From TrEMBL:
TM segment ranges: 42-61, 73-95, 115-134, 146-175, 181-202
Name this protein carries in UniProt: Probable queuosine precursor transporter
Keywords: Cell membrane, Membrane, Transmembrane, Transmembrane helix, Transport
Major subcellular location class: membrane
InterPro entries, per the entry: YhhQ
Gene name per UniProt: yhhQ
Source organism: Corynebacterium jeddahense
Domain of life: Bacteria
Protein family (similarity comment): Belongs to the vitamin uptake transporter (VUT/ECF) (TC 2.A.88) family. Q precursor transporter subfamily.
Functional description taken from the UniProt entry: Involved in the import of queuosine (Q) precursors, required for Q precursor salvage.
Membrane topology: Multi-pass membrane protein
Localization, UniProt: Cell membrane
The keyword Transmembrane helix appears for this protein: yes
Pfam families: Vut_1
Length: 220
């Protein structure tokens, strides 16, 4: 017999937010392998997508609390580890005679161990700090001034994420001078924080919509 999903689970936005949260992190890990130069600005191929992970993280922490946000972060971490292991296994497996894309496949998906460690470390520290700071600010100052909590938590989380990633992976991704290091950290931090501000008009109604959905689930 096939069991039906619990109505509470099927109606709650939480599992869907976690799914998108994990997908954004997984895709960002792949696209971040490409170094990007926009004029004098140095960044990576995930610069346009990764800020969305912090927006979703803010929604999770604001609506569900730190513990629920932490579960989402650890779930994303587990998905990323599984993906990396799968990539390594697929690269290691012998290619068929008709398959001639082994080098390209390994080049794109063969994440260097140092980059993997940097990415996972930055993600874990940044997202947990983001959720923790948001919750602590909410506990101390109440539910008002949501914009300050969102931006304040992002400043802490994004800075820790960017600094940790670059500190570990600098040599691998081609950063070979103090100037380039500072450029990468500052540009990444400012860009991601700016995106948080730009997306506030979306984050606000999203938080409100998720709250209403959870209230309907609770009343059902």
């Amino acid at each position: 017999m096939i069991e039906r999903m619990s109505p509470r689970v099927s109606r709650s936005p939480y599992p869907y937010l976690v799914a998108v949260f994990c997908a954004v992190f997984l895709i960002s890990n792949i696209t971040a392998q490409k170094g990007v130069a926009l004029g004098p600005l140095i960044t990576d191929g995930a610069f346009f997508l990764f800020p969305l992970a912090y927006v979703i993280g803010d929604v999770l922490a604001e609506v569900y609390g730190f513990d629920a946000a932490r579960r989402a972060v650890f779930t994303g971490f587990g998905v990323a580890v599984l993906a990396v292991l799968s990539f390594y296994i697929a690269i290691w497996l012998p290619g068929a005679d008709f398959y001639d894309g082994q080098d390209e496949f390994a080049s794109v998906l063969g994440l260097l161990p140092r980059v993997v460690v940097a990415s996972l470390s930055g993600y874990l520290a940044g997202q947990l700090l983001n959720a923790w700071v948001l919750q602590r600010m909410k506990d101390r100052f109440g539910t008002g001034r949501l914009w300050a909590r969102l931006i304040g938590s992002t400043v802490v989380g994004e800075f820790a994420d960017t600094l940790l990633f670059c500190s570990i992976a600098a040599g691998v991704i081609g950063i070979d001078s103090a100037g380039a290091f500072v450029n990468y950290v500052v540009v990444g931090f400012l860009w991601k924080t700016l995106m948080e501000v730009v997306l506030l008009p979306i984050t606000y109604p999203t938080i409100a919509a998720v709250r209403r959905a959870e209230e309907r689930v609770g009343a059902a």
